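Quick review question:
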């Protein structure tokens, strides 16, 4: 349901231009498409990145993976979070000899992994090493952005208003299962719609945008007062800093 809601809102925030593209990570539409950054292949250049050895599970997680299907089969109504708590308690109460068995298996796999990783790194070319650094740096940056967006949501950042196209499309999308097919058809209708008919949606958008800008300004000031300036847009901070210099107290 969350993924479907995200997909719907992504469509409604689309500005009516460019291409609608399906993102395979969340199965939703985004504009424009971002290149997939993985360690297996690189379609953006001639550098081929070999598959990296997979880090093995610890003894604890090997126990969880082994026992979880059994627990859920015997207790199908138990939520996943509760199942993990139950298994964690079982691990703590596990006989030392049983724990040692899992930990020894994990240790052997870890030693094998360490050797495979050494071999993997030893056979990388300088170009591959540079590309892997670039990919890992991009991945860290994306993780940082996701963390920031999550914090913004938790702090109640106002949602962007629907675009003119979003206002037009909204009533046609609610309750639809095949969002991709419907949005593609709506995109075509929007492109063919006379500007005079689009005007009503533009007017609504500008009204909502004005209200959003005011709410966002209040929210950003609140974040600054709370010491959370990292959640505030750089241009807002620059304006305030410039104002301080012009009007020193």
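Suggested answer, residue by residue:
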């Amino acid at each position: 349901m969350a993924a479907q809601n995200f997909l719907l809102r992504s469509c409604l925030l689309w500005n009516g231009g460019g291409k609608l593209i399906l993102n395979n990570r969340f199965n939703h539409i985004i504009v424009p498409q971002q290149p997939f950054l993985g360690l297996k292949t690189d379609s953006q250049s001639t550098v081929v990145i070999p598959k990296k050895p997979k880090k093995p599970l610890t003894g604890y997680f090997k126990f969880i993976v082994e026992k979880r299907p059994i627990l859920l089969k015997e207790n199908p109504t138990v939520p996943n979070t509760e199942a993990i708590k139950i298994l964690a308690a079982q691990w703590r109460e596990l006989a030392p000899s049983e724990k040692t068995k899992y930990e020894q298996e994990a240790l052997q796999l870890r030693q094998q992994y360490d050797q495979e990783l050494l071999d993997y790194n030893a056979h990388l070319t300088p170009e591959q090493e540079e590309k892997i650094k670039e990919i890992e740096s991009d991945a860290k940056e994306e993780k940082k952005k996701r963390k920031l967006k999550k914090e913004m949501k938790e702090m109640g950042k106002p949602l962007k208003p629907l675009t003119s196209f979003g206002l037009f499309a909204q009533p046609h999308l609610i309750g639809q299962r095949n969002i991709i097919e419907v949005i593609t058809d709506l995109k075509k209708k929007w492109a063919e719609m006379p500007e005079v008919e689009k005007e009503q949606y533009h007017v609504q958008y500008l009204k909502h945008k004005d209200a959003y800008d005011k709410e966002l300004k209040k929210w950003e000031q609140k974040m600054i007062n709370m010491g959370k300036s990292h959640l505030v847009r750089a241009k807002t901070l620059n304006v305030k800093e410039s104002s301080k210099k012009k009007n020193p107290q």
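Why it works: The first helix runs from residue 2 to 12. The beta strands are 21-23, 28-30.
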